[in-house]
Design a protein that fits this description.
The protein is an alpha/beta fold and 402 residues long. It is built from 14 helices and 17 strands. It has helices at residues 2-20, 44-63, 87-100, 112-122, 153-167, 182-197, 216-225, 237-249, 264-271, 293-305, 312-331, 336-342, 360-363, 392-401; strands at 30-37, 67-69, 72-82, 105-109, 128-131, 146-148, 173-179, 201-208, 229-231, 255-258, 279-280, 348-350, 353-355, 357-358, 368-369, 373-379, 382-389. A seven-stranded mixed sheet has the order 8-7-9-10-11-16-17, sandwiched between helices. It has a six-stranded mixed sheet with strand order 2-3-1-4-5-6, with helices on both faces.
Length: 402
């Protein structure tokens, strides 16, 4: 965590410096890419990681000569802002991005509530926005300028829960706990239906406020339910570690599920032995056999500079910077209105390899980045990838291209 605080201080100073110079004219050939994400609190590692990976992609692209569009060469610059995972701060960040930076591209955004606040300005001003928000309300035909940069409950929960049920056929009941915000509220019904479709009864749905540090009361309530499974939904790894630790103290020893689990290190550091066995659907082993060379490189850089291994939420910013570049080149334009016309139709390179945007059947429009769903588990204090599901739509698109 010391590494996180140090990095946050450095990036905060850099952001301040950018702000102080915003009154001066920018080089017209420099395009500002922005990020709205938590840079402090329990979810800080997500925002700091997105900023870091976006800057790696930008450095690679700029060093290679930038992006050539309609005979002009453009380079990118990244500016990241702390939305503190709430709507009020998300609104302030949105105003900074739109009114001060005059950015036309958001390459990273986290949290349903702050993203909805952001979209109230970005959609109206035709700003291309990539988001990892899990809420259905953040995408679809009514949000044409928004594309999802990472898997959401509609991609993750069914394969994750099905795997857990297959490995533990005896489970019959589950207790759910989620943060009491837009992200949690929109995820809960999707998760509940996915469990019930597998014949697992949801015996209790519980909520907590982000920023909570005392989890003993809610842990006592959950343990008293004596459910076979505890599903912590979209809780950050730091919060999940505390909850699982408290449950262990109370003697509960069932199946643990953290669908949005992105960081084994934080979960293990805080939860200790109580975190062992936890199933996650949003973490990746980026130094294992299934990782690409680029992902291994990014993973080592993240550990060095941020103090955390790479996860799918963080690498998403790297991937969409390259998606943006590909969209600009395919449209032969830097105008978001032209870029969104071609993004659903092209196949482009990312850290995973070639991918595309899809999901029209689920969302009503093809705005979902198609990447593998990685099912992982904490085993003896280490993250182990145990299954990887490639979206069928992506397989079909790639096969059609070949």
């Amino acid at each position: 965590m010391k590494s996180l605080r140090k990095y946050f201080l450095i990036t905060s100073l850099a952001t301040f410096a950018f702000g102080a110079s915003s009154a001066f004219a920018k080089d017209p050939e420099t395009l500002i890419l922005t990020i709205s994400a938590p840079m402090s609190g329990a979810a800080a590692t997500w925002g700091l990681g997105q900023e870091w990976t976006a800057k790696q992609a930008v450095k690679e692209i700029n060093d290679a000569g930038g992006v050539t569009v309609d005979g002009s060469v453009y380079k990118f610059e990244v500016r990241a802002y702390d939305n503190k995972y709430n709507a009020a701060e998300g609104t302030k960040v949105a105003q900074t991005i739109v009114n001060r930076d005059k950015s036309r591209y958001v390459v990273g955004s986290i949290g349903t509530a702050p993203i909805l606040a952001l979209q109230s300005l970005t959609e109206r001003n035709k700003i291309l926005t990539f988001t990892s928000a899990w809420g259905m309300s953040t995408k679809g035909p009514s949000k044409p300028y928004t594309f999802t940069q990472a898997s959401s409950p509609f991609e993750i929960l069914k394969p994750l829960y099905a795997y857990v049920k297959e490995k533990h056929p005896e489970i019959k009941t589950v207790v759910m706990l989620n943060p009491n915000d837009a992200t949690g509220k929109e995820t809960e019904p999707v998760a509940q239906k996915a469990w019930e479709d597998l014949g697992v009864e949801v015996v209790s749905v519980n909520w907590y406020e982000r920023g909570t540090t005392q989890f003993q009361p809610v842990a006592q309530k959950i343990a008293g339910m004596k459910a076979d499974v505890v599903d912590l939904g979209v809780a950050p790894p730091a919060d999940a570690g505390v909850v699982f630790r408290e449950l262990a103290v109370l003697g509960w020893d069932g199946v643990k599920v953290l669908p949005v689990g992105t960081s084994a290190s934080q979960l293990v550091e805080i939860g200790g032995k109580a975190s062992d066995g936890t199933y996650m659907g949003f973490a990746g082993d980026y130094e294992g056999e299934l990782a690409t060379d680029k992902q291994r490189e990014l993973n080592e850089g993240m550990k060095r500079d941020i103090g955390e291994p790479l996860n799918p939420l963080q690498v998403a910013a790297y991937d969409v910077v390259y998606a943006l570049k590909a969209g600009m080149e395919a449209a032969n334009s830097i105008d978001p209105e032209e870029i969104i016309k071609v993004l659903p139709n092209i196949i482009f390179d990312t850290s995973y390899g070639k991918t595309a945007f899809g999901g029209k059947e689920t969302y009503g429009s093809p705005q979902q980045l198609l990447v593998p769903v990685m099912i992982t588990q904490i085993q003896d204090g280490k993250l182990v990838e145990i299954e990887r599901a490639i979206p069928k739509e992506l397989e079909q698109r790639l096969a059609a291209q070949n």
